[in-house]
Amino acid sequence: MASILKLLLRVMTMRAEILAGVGRRRRWTDEQKLQILAEVGIDGASMADGARRHDVARQHLFQWCI
């Protein structure tokens, strides 16, 4: 029981690192965007499938289509 309490206390006091600023933003070239968008629809892949596959937010794919 004491070990569970120690573990809980340790987890509760852990610090989280927050990334801020433009350093965390990824840049996609036009060629990369076209390649990712080209995969949508192949073998029934949806926008969500393509976004997950490339670790991109779905909204980015929709914006790239405009």
Automatic annotation (TrEMBL):
Instruction: Tell me the superkingdom of the source.
Output: Bacteria
Question: Pfam families, from UniProt?
Answer: HTH_Tnp_1 (PF01527)
Q: What is this protein called?
A: Transposase
This protein's species is: Asaia krungthepensis NRIC 0535
